[in-house]
Amino acid sequence: MHDDTRRRLMLASAAALALPPLVARAQGTKLRLGLMLPYTGTYAQLGVAIENGLKLAVAQAGGKLGGREVEFVRVDDESDPAKATDNVNRLVTRDKVDVLIGSVHSGVVMAMVKVARETDTLLIIPNAGAGAATGALCAPNIFRTSFSNWQPAYPLGKVMIERGHRTAVFISWKYAAGEEAAAGFKEGFTAAGGKIVKELYLPFPNVEFQALLTQIASLKPDAVSCFFSGAGAVKFVKDYAAAGLKDKIPLYGVGFLTEGVLHAQGDDAEGLLTTLHYADSLDNPRNKAFRAAYTKASNNMEPDVFAVQGYDTGLLLAQALDKVKGDLSNRAAVVAALENAVVDSPRGPWKMSRAHNPIQDIYLRRAEKGVNKVVGVAWKALEDPARGCKL
Ligand code: BEZ
Predict the structure, then answer these.
(1) Are residues 96 and 208 in the same domain?
(2) What are the DSSP calls for 9-20, one per residue?
(3) Are residues 41 and 72 in the same domain?
(4) 277 lines ligand 1 (CB under 6 A)
(5) For the chain, how long is the longest CA-to-CA vector?
(6) 255 is in which domain, residue-wise?
(7) Which SS3 state, helix, strand or coil, does residue 136 take?
(8) pTM value?
(9) For residue 239, how many C-alpha atoms fall within 13 Å in the half-sphere facing its CB?
């Protein structure tokens, strides 16, 4: 060996010895969480609740995950799919986040899924239910802590049949979440013997419901089922009552209809029956402690399903990062930790499916004086069919 080569090798090994081991190095740097959520527009309060829930879980873990301090990098995605690719690329390429967290809107999340797959960035979805994320486009680095659009809509069909409704109209916004919720509802409703007489749509996030409500009145179905959320859900419930339909054609919904908006909907929401993977009144100590801690930490805001999903994202990350001692570079170990986690959630404990989507109970709830009260379990341990997922 040349003297020069030997000297370079000696210098290199001395430098390597001077470096702390990989795990210690990983623990020394902050963990950068890239939050891509809506902070403006019809879903703004959903984004805020997710962030509050996530931050509560991190605070309860002592402000650290896997021994690493946490830094949040935030982007307002405005629930605008047209801006989503630029937004997610900024987080991955410019801000170099360790984990992507987002989003609320199914169209926006599809851009996140694409970039996460291309760059192999870890993505945790704390709301958007787009079926493909844990279906045809499922991937080892993509996990969801919320639901698939099919999941809470499917049991609603059986619930409505059991209440004697044989025909229904489904109404929603025309984008993936509305259309996939319609498909899930239709599957459950027709399997139980029902018939959908019409699907009605308007563009997201329009709230000019009048013409469609007039159609519902003339179609005279036994009942109406719907998917709306956020500010649009407030307007829909109020307009449905103002059109004189509430007492004539019973309104049901995928549970987002009354999540976080019951106070704004007031009496017009009283008695509405919905299906969802959470209910305010769930009688378990975990939920009670979570609700008290969230209200205290978030300026007296009341938690809802979106806050729970953000919180569970924090619980999941805390568990997985503890397992790998903060070292995300061992991807196989990180994925195994996320896959095997049992999340002790306010909604009840849940685990990931093979496709990385929660297997969870879907509750039937009734809106009563500003509270989504549990009526029963509409479907026990429901797993999304994950059609097309090759994991
Ligand atoms: C979605 O776009 O996937 C979605 C938005 C709000 C509530 C639930 C789902």
Answers:
(1) no
(2) HHHHHHHHHHSP
(3) yes
(4) no
(5) 93
(6) 150-276
(7) coil
(8) 0.94
(9) 17
